[in-house]
Amino acid sequence: MVLKRWLTAFAATALLAACSSSDDGPRHAELQPITTTVEGRIEWQTRVGQGIQQHYSRLRPAVQDDKVFVADRHGAIAALNVADGRQIWRNEIGGRRGILNRWFKGEPARISGLTVAGPLLFVGTENGKVFAFNNESGELEWEQSVPGEVLSAPAVGDGRVVVHLGNGRVVSMSARTGGIQWQHEDDVSLLSLRGTSQPVISSGGVMFGGSTGKAVVLISQTGQLAWEERIATPTGSTELERIVDADGTPLIVGGTMYLAAQNGELVALDLRTGEALWKRDYGAWRSPVQVQNRIVLVDQQSNLISVDRNNGLEQWRNTDLFLRSVTEPATLGSYLVAADRFGYMHWFDRSNGQLVGRLELNGDAVRSAPVLAGERIIVQDAAGRIYSVRQSER
């Protein structure tokens, strides 16, 4: 049996940043004064459960119409009114009930991701469960066990729900009933970041990145391998340097897939053949983001980089938030909005990458990217606080 060792992405960053003096190695950047041209204002905030606390997780809100769907790791799931944060419904999932001090809160569900599609909210857990809830009432529609930890949000499309498990398997289920349709087993690395690439269902395929540094496309109807292409090869003298996880969600634009890997490259691949159209030396475990005709990426040192999506040529780079574990940005108007592990939100001018706005939340880390709900920016921190933020120009 292969023993797989997990290293959280946050821990990987912390290994780089943890030092007591400038002689010990790189330190995270301290915030510097900026010329503010845009401001963020908290419109409402609420709390659902206890968040992810000290655990690493990419758990983030999901938005549909006038509802924000949120969860905590332990098992609380809720739908909120996007206008005022008022709770519409709440449900709880989990394991055994609390017994004395051993399971004071009961066994946690270990929720890892939410996806809302049509009338259903799909929930994946590290306990190897996938749930579907009615998004209007919160009632459970179906529950399915899968053979491994669900470490990223489920993908939904073509009448199916697809999850990428920590053991490398990819499982497709019926979105209506939860019945398992097919399974695909991918290679896994002996040492890996704690997470998996969320699949994308598009153009008759299921696309994802693997822990061995590959981009993979399966035929969505059968789960058979269409193609795979290596985008990172283990090199270096330390285990940290040899990690090559492609854990971001693939970005599909037309007939091109964009994906990056830790200690690897940002690559544009032809969706039909897997042929590399261009490669650039930007190692990253977060997902690339499309901003009109550009691709924006947060690399593994938390530098924000914008490249031309047609040829990969760099347009600008911001290094002001070095090693602050910056999330993927959301695009709102003329700005990119991201957050960091120190509980700050940051606004960047998307034309040149300059920092032009900042908002301090409650000081707890933000691990996952902000989500847009119209003109609102929805953010969830590690303590389970949900914020609705409005931006305005000065």
Automatic annotation (TrEMBL):
Give the record's membrane topology. Answer: Lipid-anchor
Q: Mind telling me which InterPro entries this protein's record contains?
A: BamB, PQQ_b-propeller_rpt, PQQ_rpt_dom, Quinoprotein_ADH-like_sf, WD40/YVTN_repeat-like_dom_sf
Query: What keywords does the record list, in alphabetical order?
Result: Cell outer membrane, Lipoprotein, Membrane, Palmitate, Signal
Superkingdom is Bacteria
The Pyrrolo-quinoline quinone repeat domain, residue ranges: 38-97, 112-318
Single GO cellular component annotation?
A: cell outer membrane
Entry-linked SUPFAM superfamilies: Quinoprotein alcohol dehydrogenase-like
Subcellular location field: Cell outer membrane
A biological process (GO) of this protein is: protein insertion into membrane
Do you know which PANTHER family this protein is assigned to? CELL SURFACE PROTEIN, OUTER MEMBRANE PROTEIN ASSEMBLY FACTOR BAMB
Q: Which HAMAP family match?
A: OM_assembly_BamB
* Subunit-structure text: Part of the Bam complex.
Similarity comment: family membership: Belongs to the BamB family.
Looking up NCBIfam families in the UniProt record yields: assembly_YfgL
Cited function: Part of the outer membrane protein assembly complex, which is involved in assembly and insertion of beta-barrel proteins into the outer membrane.
State the protein's name.
Outer membrane protein assembly factor BamB
Q: What gene name does this entry carry? A: bamB
